[in-house]
Design brief:
The complex is a heterodimer of chains A (130) and B (388).
Chain A lengths: L11 H9 L4 E5 L4 E2 L14 E5 L3 E10 L12 E7 L4 E6 L12 E4 L2 E2 L6 E2 L1 E4 L1
Parallel strand pairs in A: 6-10
Antiparallel strand pairs in A: 1-2, 1-3, 4-5, 4-7, 5-6, 7-10, 8-9
Chain B lengths: L3 E8 L10 H16 L8 E5 L3 H5 L4 H8 L6 E4 L5 H15 L4 E8 L5 H10 L14 H16 L3 H15 L13 H6 L2 E3 L2 E2 L9 E9 H6 L6 E10 L14 H14 L8 E3 L5 H10 L30 H5 L3 H17 L13 E8 L4 E9 L2
Parallel strand pairs in B: 2-3, 2-4, 9-10
Antiparallel strand pairs in B: 1-7, 1-8, 4-7, 5-6, 8-11, 10-11
Classes of the chains: A mainly beta (130), B alpha/beta (388).
Chain lengths: 130, 388
């Protein structure tokens, strides 16, 4: 490996790859608390008995914003809608795609769909209304 | 437990000075603080310094000793980083050290150089206070995170952008007499509503500016102040700190800040006061909505009602509970690492009667400073009281 090769973020990049294949998961501890990887200890109860569980195919938007002033990594993506989505045991933050940003609102049902940044080509958590 | 005396305070002007290094900014603030305190530099036993983004803006780590040197102090020095709550956290550590008797005199404060990064660079730097993997890579910016909270608040309790606009108008009004403020300029509600959107529902005038600046406090034990006949009528009588999950989406309620509630409750109990005893407060209004969340977390407004406090005049300079008489982060400016200690400086001056806005709180005895980091995954609250 040379110094210029990108280095993966173990746990996170596998999750993105799985989600891109339609196999998204979350982590569930022995006491039923949900969390996101990489994770060795449940942040709710300290349990170290953690296993992957299937993430629900759809979730509901809990809150949303349309960002006009992005960081440089999303320069060409703005304006874009960012939402916090409730998938039951866990919530995810992602970009709402496939809809006019002005029409995105709390309560909307969305499905997880990994997309790419128009600026950097990096994978981004996308959320498509169903 | 003995109180901690605020013997001296120093602030630089907050604003746009991209060429000035943070060591220069901090040095200026400490000169003022030492002059005001009458405490010799030789008596300082520790330097506690808050800074957030020095690695990004100045390519500078290991800032503790650098800042002690800039202040002309030979004492062990530590940098505290807790995002926008960095120097609030440093103040809390100073208070604890002085109370335990470990130290009698501490120089505490903070600085931040931000404007040299430009708007895009500063936006990127501020965003590192959020979870890089699960928030920033999804496009969350700092205004974006507070916009998510603002929308969640509107959905849960009602309210509209115009309510928030009144907070910005109030804080700009308060800053008119503050010569250190970044904006000494009155604005109107229509200015806020017509400003370009940053992250909806928040626009340019809902956001604090990007600022350079520094703050410094000379804190002493009660015994040191008495032995040296210091003119230090204001004491820090309560301190509290709260924590929460890092990412906003892991907050149980997206429009509340339990870390600040925890910090506030601890600080009130520590000082032996309750919210009803508070005469005024400086709160962390990095965005207009943040002032609402702070008031509710500190029990200065009931949950769901803080949104109308400015619009209805309860928190204006002549209201029953003046909030951010300094101008707040919104108008005074927000050099991140300097902010927490700067709030203590402003509250001290207001209580001591030395502040241009002291007349609004002439009979006040008890005030609060609330400093928040990230989307309030970190918070510190301090109670200050004045001898009357």
């Amino acid at each position: 490996m040379s110094d210029s090769d990108p280095v993966a973020d173990a746990g996170f990049d596998e999750w993105l790859a799985a989600a891109a294949e339609g196999d998204a998961y979350y982590l569930e501890c022995a006491n039923g608390h949900g969390s996101l990887p990489p994770r060795r200890v449940c942040p709710d109860c300290g349990s170290t008995d953690i296993a992957e569980a299937d993430l629900s195919e759809t979730g509901e938007i809990r809150t949303v914003t349309v960002t006009h002033v992005p960081t440089p990594a999303f320069e060409d993506d703005a304006p874009y809608a960012t939402a916090v989505v409730d998938f039951g045991p866990v919530r995810l933050t992602g970009q709402v795609i496939g809809i006019d940003v002005a029409d995105v609102e709390t309560g909307l049902t969305v499905a997880l769909e990994i997309t790419t940044s128009e600026t950097t080509g990096e994978r981004v958590i996308g959320l498509r209304p169903v | 437990m003995s109180d901690v005396r605020v013997a001296g305070t120093g602030l630089t002007s907050f604003g746009n000075s991209p060429e000035r290094t943070s060591r220069d900014l901090f040095a200026e603030a400490t000169i003022t603080a030492f002059e005001e305190s009458g405490v010799p530099r030789d008596d300082v036993e520790a330097v506690l310094y808050g800074n957030f983004m020095g690695e990004l803006s100045e390519h500078q780590g290991h800032q503790g000793p650098l800042m002690a040197e800039a202040a002309g102090v030979q004492a062990p020095a530590t940098r505290y980083e807790s995002a926008c709550a960095s120097s609030g956290t440093a103040v809390r550590e100073a208070v604890k050290r002085i109370r335990t008797g470990e130290n009698d005199v501490i120089l505490v404060g903070g600085a931040e150089r931000m404007t040299n990064l430009g708007t895009a660079g500063a936006t990127e730097a501020l965003a590192i206070a959020a979870d890089d993997l699960w928030e920033v890579r999804a496009g969350v910016t700092f205004p974006g995170a507070y916009a998510l909270m603002a929308q969640a608040y509107f959905d849960a309790y009602g309210g509209e952008h115009e309510d928030l606009a009144h907070i910005a108008v109030k804080n700009h009004e308060n800053a008119l007499s503050n010569e250190k403020a970044q904006y000494q300029r009155a604005i109107e509600v229509s200015d806020v509503l017509e400003a370009p959107p940053v992250s909806e529902p928040l626009g340019l005038y809902d956001a604090c500016p990007i600022s350079d600046g520094a703050s410094a406090l000379v804190l002493t034990s009660e015994a040191y102040a008495e032995d040296h006949d210091l003119e230090a009528p204001v004491a820090i009588t309560g301190t509290g700190q709260g924590g929460d999950r890092m990412a906003l989406h892991d907050r149980e309620h997206l429009a509340r800040s339990p870390a600040a509630r925890e910090a506030g409750a601890e600080a009130y109990a520590d000082a032996g006061v309750d919210a009803g005893d508070v005469d005024f407060a400086e709160v962390h209004d990095c965005f207009t909505i943040a002032e609402v969340l702070a008031l509710e977390a500190l029990d200065l407004e009931p949950i769901g009602e803080g949104i109308s406090a400015a619009r209805d005049g309860r928190t204006t300079a002549d209201g029953e509970m003046p909030i951010n008489l300094s101008g707040g982060l919104k108008a005074k400016g927000h050099p991140v690492g300097a902010t927490g200690a700067s709030q203590i400086a402003e509250v001290t001056e207001l209580l001591a009667g030395h502040h241009p806005n002291s007349d609004h709180v002439a009979d006040a005895t008890t005030a609060v400073a609330h400093n928040a980091g990230g989307t309030v995954a970190s918070a510190t609250v301090h109670v200050l009281e004045v001898d009357r």
